[in-house]
Amino acid sequence: MTKKYELNKNLAQMLKGGVIMDVTNAEQAKIAEAAGACAVMALERVPADIRRDGGVARMSDPAMIKAIQAAVSIPVMAKVRIGHFVEAQILEAIGIDFIDESEVLTPADEAFHVDKTAFKVPFVCGARNLGEALRRIGEGAAMIRTKGEAGTGNVVEAVTHMRRMTDDIRRVKNAGAEELMSLAKEFGAPFDLIKYVHENGKLPVVNFAAGGIATPADAALMMQLGSEGVFVGSGIFKSGNPEKRARAIVQAVTYYNDPAKLAELSENLGEAMSGLEINTLESKYAERGW
Amino acid sequence: MKIGILGFQGAIIEHERHVAAIGAEPVIVRYREQLPELDGIILPGGESTTMGKLLNRTGMMEPLRDAIAGGLPAWGTCAGMILLAKRLENDPARYLALMDITVRRNAYGRQIDSFSTSVEIPEVGTGQLPLVFIRAPYITETGAGVQVLCRLDGHVVAAREGNLLATSFHPELTDSDVFHRYFAGMCAAR
Questions:
Q1: What residues of chain A lie within 8 A of the CB of B81, using their CB?
Q2: Interface contact B114, partner A, CB < 8 A
Q3: d(C-alpha A147, C-alpha A288), whole Å
């Protein structure tokens, strides 16, 4: 394991207990920072708009990302299409702090994800289960998040993915040593990483929740299910009062185990983003990537 | 001995593990009512803006400042150093503003500039100590009462002023508990 990879996993550790917010311009980035976001994700359209507009969704304009970097002091992340290593090279060249190889954008490669070991900057990738998470970590991801179902304001898929991850980890942890190679085969995951999970009972990198989180209660739910922090995409700037909702979600992640506090935080937040039923979706982003 | 770790955001469990490993009792601090029972408090690495805003919003800023000003030993790592500083060179914000140092935020640059190294710090412990810098700040000025513990390439990256300890780097991310033992010594001597 290289020194650089260790440092990149360390940055993810510094984000724990925090909220990473999608922002589409410098003004929103400042609102997110003022609300207490631990990082921002710079993108041209939030997932709810990508879903509505259709078409090919790509990496954002570097000029827009640079404007956001100039506007805030917290880490700035940005998304590349699955497998689009040149978009990743471009983001690395402008000094992005974290790259999200994201299923929210239209995949550029049907067969392969980016070789993340070829980069100095850290990557976060989505996963629905342990095998997918370990494949991405095997490729060099320094952080994992649930895929959930972005742009829906519906937390059900994020819950499914987090529970699945926890179940898979428990299974590997409790397995006998002689079962590990068969589990590696079953999960389609590198053997050394299966071994790590068996010995440590957790992923070797930080694991956040993402995809459909819209309320302080959603954020606290994901934390109680074992997430180490949350990404909120459309949930903030597609709501009635982004400032107030963003502040409330930040505090809900800190006080996720305190129902009285959560009740207080959930009061008078205005309208939440309108949500979508998963079975009415034309395309499920979580099915992109493998 | 009870050593608190400000439990708002950041590398909390990493400190918790080290505190437990040296035989002290770690306490994750999220409420002001927890402050009186502490023998010391660690302000962990994470995002200083996030922690600073939560300190203000939860009403913890004043009681925490009072406790530390009243002698409670406090150790800030990275973001925690920013919370302790009286002056920030490149940010109008001020948080606890207790330690007579000027700090430059993100002084080494972006994540691509994060690095690790090892040095000897005789005041703190023997042998080479591993230092991990993540989007780290450093100290650009120290007041008269501040003891410089470590300089790296001419920049102050660790300092002490009475009951206050500040490090640019993250001992909690390494296997070494030398810094945690040093801080426990400060708590014991209170």
A1: none
A2: yes
A3: 10
Give the C-alpha separation, A171 to A190, whole Å: 16
Pairing of strands B115-120, B128-133: antiparallel
Does the pLDDT of residue A192 top 90, yes or no? yes
* pLDDT tier at B190, thresholds 50, 70, 90: confident
Question: B138 and B169 in contact (C-beta within 8 Å)?
Answer: no
Residue A11 clears pLDDT 70, i.e. is over it? yes
**Tokens 């805003």 belong to residue:** B53
Residue type, A283: S
Q: What is the mean pLDDT of chain B?
A: 97
Smallest Cβ–Cβ distance between A36 and the set B14, B50, B105 belongs to B50
Output DSSP code: residue A107: P
pLDDT tens-digit readout, B50-70: 999 999 999 999 999 999 999
DSSP E strands, chain B: 2-6, 25-29, 40-43, 74-77, 85-88, 99-104, 115-120, 128-133, 138-142, 147-152, 155-161, 164-167
Q: Which CATH class is domain B2-188?
A: alpha beta
Q: How many CA atoms lie within 13 A of A143 on its CB side?
A: 32
pLDDT (tens digit, 9 = 90+) per residue, A72-108? 999 999 999 999 999 999 999 999 999 999 999 999 9
ipTM of the complex: 0.95
**Nearest Cβ partner of A75 from B78, B111, B115?**
B111
* Residues β-bridged to residue A19: A230
